[in-house]
Amino acid sequence: MFLEHFSLNAHPFTEKPPIEWLLRDEHIEQAMARLKFFEQQGTIALIIGQTGLGKSSLLRLFIHELPPNRYTPLYLHLTPLHANAFLRLIVTKLGEKPKIGKDRLLLQILDRIHQNDKCTLLIIDEAHLLDPKTLTDLRLLISSIDEKISLKIVLCGQHDLSQILKRSSHADLAYRITLQFMMRALSKEKTSAYIDHRIRMAGATEKVFQQEAKDLIHDYTDGVPRQINNVATACLINAAARGLTQITESLVNETMAEFSLP
Predict the structure, then answer these.
(1) Cβ pair 23, 229 in contact under 8 A
(2) Which residues make beta-bridge pairs with 231?
(3) Is the pLDDT of residue 261 over 70?
(4) Confidence at residue 258, expressed as pLDDT on a 0 to 100 scale
(5) CA dist list (Å): 220 to 2, 76, 207
(6) pLDDT at 89 over 70
(7) What are the backbone angles phi and psi of residue 200, rounded to the nearest 5°?
(8) What SS3 class is residue 16?
(9) What is the pLDDT of residue 196?
């Protein structure tokens, strides 16, 4: 096992690392600053980015730093549901038994939110897969709030979501978006820092990956964190199998010859 071989305390490139493992570079800090403004002033936030860029990790960090005495976050990611099923999912997340009929479901959600002494924060991941009717329902919910009902919504998804929201049928929802943030791939420098940070958090020395190897991993992955995780893990496994203590440029090339990116 490569963990023992490299004296690692945990898998450095796991999909869902501990919160403290997340690299808070300036891009993430910008995102968090905007989300902090949204938390205090906004109604709807929109986070866009291709798959694997760390949108879900950003949401985890945001939820982790929410004041627990002020917000009730509801994380929803099972988005490929028809509209009524998604409303039932929200009701269930609110701790209620869903009623029958869309009108009753919408009223049930509003009543439950009204009873909550905290602001309800709907955080919807994979929002690009939402049924268009669900987006209409979310607009109805937001349109129904007043000073006595506290509700905020975060929509997080791939680039298709931006195009969907540009449709005239969703104009009212789009006009209510307070915050928009676009996730970006890591630069070569940031890819190197990302690999070093993860290795360090797992208890090993940053010298495990030579600089040339980190640069090459960036070239292969285009700086997409999820792909960096996959390639770096494959390199660690390959190195351990060969009894090597460092990841070199040649090892990355050899590993990639057997590793097909989707």
Answers:
(1) no
(2) none
(3) no
(4) 78
(5) 22, 32, 20
(6) yes
(7) -65, -40
(8) coil
(9) 95
